[in-house]
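Below is a filled-in request sheet from our internal design queue. Each sheet records the structural input a requester submitted and the sequence that came back. We keep these sheets so that new team members can see what a complete request looks like end to end.

REQUESTER: design group, bay 2
PRIORITY: normal
MODE: inverse folding
CHAIN LENGTH: 127
BACKBONE (tokenized):
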């Protein structure tokens, strides 16, 4: 049986919040943001530097251009959307090192980070 400590350690090994992603990017860690939503949603608004790989189209051919030596961070709209989870699972099955952005685009914006459609504001994380 999985202990509580093992559960939370595993959870943190596979999930990131907006502050985690921002800090990792600022530190120069090799992350690639994967927008797992439909292309139409990506074109309206996404995270700076993200690439569009809709979870419905993920397979060996559509992900062949993605780096195997980076952490891929799958995201979607937010808590009411599971495209990031579906994308993370498919990417992991394809052999990538994957994490899921908790809260997706919604919580990214709520935390004050910029998107391709909105300017960010000063962020002070209490994490």
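RETURNED SEQUENCE:
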């Amino acid at each position: 049986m999985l202990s509580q400590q093992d559960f939370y350690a595993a959870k943190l090994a596979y999930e990131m919040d907006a502050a985690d992603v921002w800090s990792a990017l600022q530190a120069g860690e090799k992350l690639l943001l994967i927008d797992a939503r439909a292309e139409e949603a990506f074109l309206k608004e996404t995270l700076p530097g993200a690439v569009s790989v809709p979870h419905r189209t993920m397979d060996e051919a559509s992900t062949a251009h993605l780096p195997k030596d980076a952490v891929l961070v799958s995201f979607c709209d937010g808590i009411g959307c599971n495209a990031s989870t579906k994308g993370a699972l498919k990417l992991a099955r394809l052999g990538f090192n994957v994490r899921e952005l908790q809260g997706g685009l919604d919580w990214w914006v709520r935390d004050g980070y910029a998107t391709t459609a909105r300017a960010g504001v000063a962020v002070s994380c209490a994490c």
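SHEET NOTES:
- The first helix runs from residue 4 to 14.
- The beta strands are 15-16, 31-35, 51-52, 71-75, 97-101.
FILED BY: M.R.
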